[in-house]
Write a structure and sequence with these properties.
Number of domains: 1
Order of helices and strands: EHHEHE
Distance between the termini: 23 Å
Structural class: alpha+beta
Radius of gyration: 16 Å
Largest sheet: 3 strands, antiparallel
Strand content: 35-45%
Length: 81
């Protein structure tokens, strides 16, 4: 059986000003992290991260790329570009 996982690359934003805020139980990081988009091409994801970090250099955030995977029991939609 073919593995239904397909490599993907999440473009993630970390908001520094929100990472300092904490909830009563001390966990607020989920509020400071946002997945902007998920791309299938690593080069495009890294280029988008570089572009966003330049555009937002004066803001309290940082973008980075994180390897992940798309999982589906139906692979037909994964084959499309």
């Amino acid at each position: 059986m073919k593995n239904p996982n397909k490599p993907a690359y999440a473009v993630v934003r970390l908001d520094y000003f929100l990472s300092e805020v904490s909830t009563p139980n001390g966990t607020a990081l989920e509020r400071a992290v946002t997945v902007k988009e998920v791309l299938l091409d690593r080069t495009k994801a890294e280029a988008e991260v570089e572009r966003l970090n330049k555009v937002n250099a004066d803001k309290q955030c940082h973008y980075f790329c994180k390897h992940t995977r798309l999982v589906s029991s139906d692979e037909s939609w994964l084959a499309q570009p």
